Amino acid sequence: METLRVVSMGAGVLPGTRATSLVIDAAAVAADDEVPYMRGCFDHFIGSRDSESLYMVAPQGGGTGPELAVFFVRL
């Protein structure tokens, strides 16, 4: 988490730390060892008991709308 301390907003993948000696399985192991992340200021809204959404907003408050919207709907 110390790596993300300087990031105020964004998304990406942190590289894995495991080393492997097998070249064939190296790509599969490296992909499993990576950690995806999303960091930012989020507004959380609950639409009903079956739906909620997260809106990533700019830290400066740009006023142009959300940078990213994630919707969760229970079917």
Automatic annotation (TrEMBL):
One of its GO terms (biological process) is hydrotropism. It comes from the Eukaryota. This is Uncharacterized protein. It comes from Sorghum bicolor.
